[in-house]
Amino acid sequence: MAAAPRIGAVPWSGFAPCEAIFFDLDDTLIDFDGGIDECWQAVCAEAAGPGAGFSARELRAAITRVAGFYWSDPERHRIGRADLMAATRAIVGEALDGLGASNEALAAQLAARYRTLRDDGLVLYPGAVELLDELISAGHTLGVITNGEAALQRAKLERFNLIGYFTYVGIEGEAGVGKPDAEAYWRALQSLGCAPADSWMIGDNLEWDVLGPQRLGLRTVWIDRHARGLPENTTARPDHITKSVAELAAAQR
Ligand SMILES: [Mg+2]
Q1: How far, in Å, is the centroid of ligand 1 from the Cα of 63?
Q2: Is 98 part of any domain?
Q3: DSSP string for residues in 64-83
Q4: What range does the domain containing 27 cover?
Q5: How remote is the CA of residue 106 from the centroid of ligand 1, in Å?
Q6: Cβ–Cβ < 8 Å for 207, 28
Q7: What are the tens digits of pLDDT across the range 123-149?
Q8: CATH number assigned to the domain comprising residue 132
Q9: Last residue of some domain: 120, 140, 157?
Q10: How many angstroms does the Cα of residue 45 sit away from the middle of ligand 1?
Q11: What is the pTM of this model?
């Protein structure tokens, strides 16, 4: 199980036998954020036009501004991801307000269209299934710890046939607790009867998938999709850094 260390990571020798491995879902196994730009552009193009009072470009810029502010606050983020449709409606509504084109019905319509496009565009990352298969074959027990709405997260697990891989499924909307709350990881560990030192968390979010588990003594793999490296001001110390689950799957062979 030799694995090539990446720049910024300590040398890594892979997972030891019998260790439990917990996965994040969105932007780790599933490409969740990949379609954001295209989906907003399509929605804004459909909404703009003669008589709309704004151009597609103006609406897109307004939504980017409002969404950036909205999702930047951890508490607003927590509330927003518990009801993505409502959060999207609020963001579009505020963007329309800013353009002097207030219209609640239009905001609801555009939000619904956007969420449908986002959902339609979801795909599993290449290598995701291969990695899960390889880890199961190697005798690991797997779990998933994911933030977000109960129905949406469970639907994704079922749609992509992932549910059967996971002995533990921790969904924020079902559990009532989410990452990076320590309780979210403790429940996962207790469910599988695993000690933190014998467990890993793999994910793309430094706060949720590295810092949170790290505080409890789990080891972590950070998915640094854009190869940006660790920010200078972070105390996150992933045990391994990789660009993708495909790269991680290749490292298992
Ligand atoms: Mg994620």
Answers
A1: 22
A2: yes
A3: HHHHHHHHHSHHHHHHHHTS
A4: 20-32+123-251
A5: 30
A6: no
A7: 999 999 999 999 999 999 999 999 999
A8: 3.40.50.1000
A9: 120
A10: 29
A11: 0.92
